[in-house]
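Page 42, continued from yesterday. The earlier attempt failed because a stray header line got pasted into the input along with the sequence. Redoing it now with the clean sequence only.
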Amino acid sequence: MKNVITGLENLCLNPPSRLPGSWGLLCNPAAVTSDYSFALDILLERFPGRLKVILGPQHGFFAERQDNMVESAHAPHPRYGLPVYSLYGETRRPTRPMLEGLDVLLVDLPDMGCRVYTFFTTMVACMEEAAKLGVAIWVLDRPNPLGRGMDEGPLLPPELFSFVGPHSMPLRHSLTL
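This time it went through. Structure tokens are written below.
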């Protein structure tokens, strides 16, 4: 069996020679390394002073909102004091103040490869808003836990695009973010 190196681990093991200065991080507690170290802790340790903002998807940055459609609020991180902004609360997209001053937004969200899971939509919204401000997006990709299966379901027609289906894609696309 081969070991998988996630995008997070690859960044830490092989950082680019010219690293951008200020970073944001979009993730949740499932963003871990192969030894189960949390992305936030690893990035703060490996790249001190770079991380400025944390963004959380549906269910919250701490995955504390497991009921469907329960929003979470913004709050400082209890240990590190960094701002933690919810992208499933008063807004579903990052606002200008959330991204201003960042050079790069790291995205580390495990995804099941299913259209109705909202992490893809959240990542797309981050890409769109970051592009307006010239903030780079680095997707720290990781394997789809369901594997590479067959696509299932019809393509979503444009008239049905929503937060649980922002693009024409099958119900199960079997891809990673």
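Notes: Helices lie at 7-13, 39-46, 96-99, 119-133.
Reminder to self: strip header lines before submitting.
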